[in-house]
Amino acid sequence: MKARTRVAIIGAGIVGLMTALHLARRGVTDVVVLDRAPALLLGASGRNGGGIRAQWTTAENIELAKRSIEQFERLARDTGHNTWFRQGGYLFLARTEEQLSNLRKAAAFQNAHGVRTRLVDADGARRIVPPLSTEGILGGAFNPDDGTLFPWPVVHGVAEEVRRRGVEIVLNADVVGFDTAGGKVRAVVTSRGRVEADHVLLAAGARSPSVAALLGIDLPTRPQRHEILVTEALKPFFDPMLVDLSNGLYASQAMRGEVIGGVSHPHVDGHSQESSLAFASTFARALTRLLPQLTGVRALRQWAGSYDLTPDARPILGLAGAFDNFYVACGFTGHGFMIAPMTGQLLAELMTGGKPSLPIDGFRLSRFAEGDLAKESMVIG
Ligand SMILES: Cc1cc2nc3c(=O)[nH]c(=O)nc-3n(C[C@H](O)[C@H](O)[C@H](O)COP(=O)(O)OP(=O)(O)OC[C@H]3O[C@@H](n4cnc5c(N)ncnc54)[C@H](O)[C@@H]3O)c2cc1C
Predict the structure, then answer these.
(1) In this structure, what are the phi and psi dihedrals at residue 71, rounded to the nearest 5 degrees?
(2) Cα 55–207–215 angle (5° rounding)?
(3) What is the pLDDT, as a whole number, of residue 11?
(4) Is 4-48+152-221+312-370 in CATH node 3.40.50.300?
(5) Residue pair 206/42 in contact by the 8 Å Cβ criterion
(6) pTM of the predicted model, to two decimals?
(7) What is the CB neighbour count within 10 angstroms for residue 100?
């Protein structure tokens, strides 16, 4: 590991790596990405459902997602890695009048932001997914530009691309302290040594609060275990990500044919990555209710990862603490992968002295103390 760098990034998840990519594209390749894990993909970025959507209820999330989708459309070409990005849409399904009315309001808001969400009735939903059981379904919302991807080649592709451009990724480097002076963070201290930096970005996912605490910064985020499951491969029979608003089920079919998804159930707070039978059975019931033909299908693998929750389900981005060169990017709840490309671009713009191409003031850390919260309500899982 080099002793000095222009930018040190803590966390080699999708957020840290996308920031490194956008820095490199701006000519800043004197960058070190530090990660405590022995390999890539051990954080949430290697454990998620690969869902990518612009159907949100806050303007910032819609804009971040929309522009990130444009970047995902180009990413395979940019990195030379097949990301399995497929725009089969997201189909949200409502079983109550209240859910339907919320979808109606959200769709109008999304349309005003240029997102092509349209409302469908139960028959319309079945036209999009013919094997869908629409019993109890009142209607839904569908945006054809949403989709899914395979997170692993995205992370590997971006990591290889930034390395090729000169960025150093250092694994087994647990950040354990900082040196500060004159209102700046001067160096990051890791289990593998110390690196001096002009700018430091904390992008350590659900573990960000303990790192920020080393600088006396209090992040109001908390980790929560979310489980997920993949079935054996079946002949492809549905395209969109399905979301059942009555139980938080989300499920999509990967291009190889596996069905992958999660569901709301009593999630455990903390960093546990254990799997539970209770999750598997809740998921199986919710999935077969929507797609009865999956009754009897075998689960191939089950795992868990951490959601990185904020009180308003929106991320924290920008400068933090009493330092003018220390930035945070965390609190991505259950949707950090889909907005990572644009998040990385905004952070790179900030750190290179440019004006961020989208307003990021709404993501400032101080909003929690100020009580200025606009809650994002389309969180699922
Ligand atoms: C089950 C599940 C399903 C999800 N589904 C979706 C989805 O469909 N779509 C979507 O967009 N998002 C989804 N998410 C959320 C998404 O995965 C995360 O928001 C995103 O991956 C966060 O990326 P990150 O880079 O912030 O964090 P991470 O990927 O967790 O990376 C943080 C990195 O920081 C490192 N680190 C931590 N502490 C230290 C330290 N002290 N020193 C050095 N390094 C450190 C960690 O080792 C880790 O590699 C899901 C999450 C889960 C758990």
Answers:
(1) -70, -40
(2) 115
(3) 98
(4) no
(5) no
(6) 0.97
(7) 21
